[in-house]
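Weekly sync, protein design subgroup
Attendees: M.S., D.O., the rotation student, P.L. (late)

Item 1: inverse folding check
M.S. brought a backbone from last month's batch and wanted to see whether the design step gives back something sensible before we order anything. D.O. pointed out we never logged the input encoding, so this time it goes straight into the notes. Structure tokens as presented (189 positions):
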């Protein structure tokens, strides 16, 4: 999934809560996705404009132009935008667990059904296991070259991926346990 698609999904998910100004959208996305995923206005406003022209968003003007204060544009989801968000959240293809997409998808897990959440978590777990193998091979190769700094960087990467795999294992177990709990007729009583 392209970066613009992830931005589209993030904006749709943010506006599902309520209509917002562009500044508020940027601020919420920054708090949801963290400081390492800075979103510039140069990316946000063209995306909003595209989404309005595609019929996914509608705009309302708040306030009037007076002296030094311009009216503020408030963005809200249209029916087409709601439908697109639902379609996106129901999908769980390989792009959903890649680095660029996973954080955005994970931030919207409360709006995602349990089966899709589980598929995304399992896919991410599989991708991280592959990465773990790649890094482990790199660590072995670096040891043979005796480059202490590169070896340390590889070790750090290995530990980071190992922690993510452990975290994913716990999330997957929690999802499975929650699903088992809902399916257990004894719990309905």
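Designed sequence read out in the meeting:
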């Amino acid at each position: 999934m392209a970066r613009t698609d992830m931005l589209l999904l993030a904006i749709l998910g943010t506006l599902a809560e309520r209509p917002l100004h562009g500044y508020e959208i940027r601020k919420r996305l920054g708090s949801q996705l963290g400081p390492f995923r800075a979103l510039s206005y140069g990316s946000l406003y063209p995306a909003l404009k595209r989404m309005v022209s595609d019929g996914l968003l509608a705009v309302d003007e708040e306030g009037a132009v007076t002296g030094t204060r311009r009216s503020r544009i408030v963005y809200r989801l249209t029916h087409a935008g709601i439908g697109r968000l639902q379609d996106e959240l129901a999908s769980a293809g390989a792009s959903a667990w890649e680095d660029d997409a996973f954080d955005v998808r994970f931030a919207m897990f409360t709006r995602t059904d349990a089966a899709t959440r589980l598929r995304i978590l399992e896919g991410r777990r599989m991708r991280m296991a592959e990465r773990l193998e790649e890094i482990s091979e790199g660590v072995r190769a670096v040891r043979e070259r005796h480059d202490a700094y590169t070896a340390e960087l590889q070790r750090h990467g290995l530990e980071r991926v190992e922690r993510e795999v452990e975290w994913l294992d716990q999330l997957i177990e929690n999802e499975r346990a929650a699903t088992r709990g809902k399916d257990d007729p004894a719990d309905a009583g």
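Discussion: The chain has a mean pLDDT of 85. The domain at 3-107 is CATH 1.10.10.10 (Arc Repressor Mutant, subunit A).
Action: P.L. to compare against the previous round before Friday.
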